[in-house]
Amino acid sequence: MSLGAQGRFVKSFVPGLDDVILGFPRGGLILVSGLPGSGKTSLGMSFIYNGALKAGEPGIYVSTYESRERFIENARSFGMDFEKLEERGLFEFISLPVLMEVGVAESFNMVVERVEEMGARRLVIDSFTALRESFKSPHEARILLQSVLYRVLEKLRCTTMLIKERASAGEDVGFEDYVADAAIHLEATLLENRAIRILSFIKLRGGEIRHPKICFTLSKGFRALPPTKPLKPREPISFSPPPDPPEGYTTGIPDLDREIGGYPKGATVLMEIDPRLIPRDYHPLFLPAVASFIHKGRFIIGIPSEGVTVESLMRAGKLYGVSEEKFLKHGVYFIETTAPMEELPNIIRFDTRDFNAAFRKVMDTAHELAKKFHEPPFIGVGVDRLVRLFGFNAAANLLAATQDYVRQSEALMIWLVKPIEPGIVERLAPIADMHIKITRRHGCVIFYGVKPWTPIYGLQIDPESRTPLPEIIPIV
Known about the structure:
This protein is α/β, with parallel strands linked by helices and 476 residues long. The chain folds into two domains: 3-225, 3-Layer(aba) Sandwich (Rossmann fold); 248-474, P-loop containing nucleotide triphosphate hydrolases (Rossmann fold). It has helices at 3-8, 40-55, 68-77, 82-87, 96-99, 104-118, 128-132, 138-155, 175-179, 254-260, 279-295, 310-318, 324-329, 355-373, 383-390, 392-409, 424-428; strands at residues 9-10, 24-25, 29-34, 59-63, 91-95, 122-126, 159-165, 182-191, 194-204, 213-217, 223-225, 248-249, 263-264, 268-273, 300-303, 331-336, 347-350, 378-382, 412-417, 434-441, 444-451, 456-460, 471-474. The strands form four sheets. A ten-stranded mixed beta sheet has the order 17-16-15-18-19-14-20-21-22-23, sandwiched between helices. A hairpin with a 2-residue loop joins strand 8 and strand 9 (194-204). It starts with a helix and ends with a strand.
């Protein structure tokens, strides 16, 4: 990105948004559209509040329907204290219905005067749709808007967000759509009867749009969820396993423990993984629980998924502070005799021609290690590998039989299931205690509980952080 491009753009300071675009054209018109409840006002709040708080840019919010008191109260529920900004001279709320008594044109002139007097660098008009009803004709609205655009945008260099009600970006296209420097459309829709929110970039004059659609949430205020980034190996790693909840085991992720209460003792968790995902996409949701078991002196029994080797798991474990020595000391890993893999301690090979012998070897190992460690194990199973090795029915029988041991010993078992084999999820879901689906939408890794029911969560990772734990964000 050139210095010229940086100078033409101003950061939005909306959480997550500047990760996917350069920002907004400085002194430009930003058109934000969507149906009622889609998040337009929350986006406008964030644009004004964070611009003032983080960059010291004064802002004005003009509302056609909301009182100052209600605006302040709603903003406070998102953690935004506009009254403090008012005290510092960085914010002003204007209720347009009060000004409208003197006429539309005069009301706009008064807004422009306040922008100039205050030296405002950010302005939100909420909403243009309601305002348009006050004009005598579309021509009058266009003339007035042109006048405001010239005085506010070009002369005063105030970046202005214009909010418009509409169901889709292609509906009710008007003059404002053509003159806007950037256009964003917000949509609230459903995924398996769960709320999911989509932000679409319609245009960004002078800037690239590499991600035309991204997810966002209104949890604790407007936040864009850019494509989930992979973890980067870093030293030193800061990972301390969270405490186990009563009668359960930690997921290894404090955010997730707060949302679902951890994993119950003796439970079997089915993680249904979108086949389009690769291990680095879903491992941040799975490996923290494994690492927590190891750090707490417990042991692991693992059957890796297809395409995952013991060596790759060992490398991934280092992201969570698990050394190779600790990984092998606290784990036993089963692979087929024909697998081309380096011989390592605690690697047990089984003959895929004898299902009963393979099952007995797994159970005997579990009992021996339980006596050695005096703790129940974590059992992680890549179901797709089992199905390939033993066939659909035999693999399902092995999993069901292992589940009996897990319940009796109060262990924890996680099935990693990629629904490549038809019917495998339908066969296993009824007997699993928990069922979590992991997929990707618009670059963001998301997941949600089928059993028990949960909302959709976005999984966000800071690749520069010293801690490998993802942030779990409810999409509401």
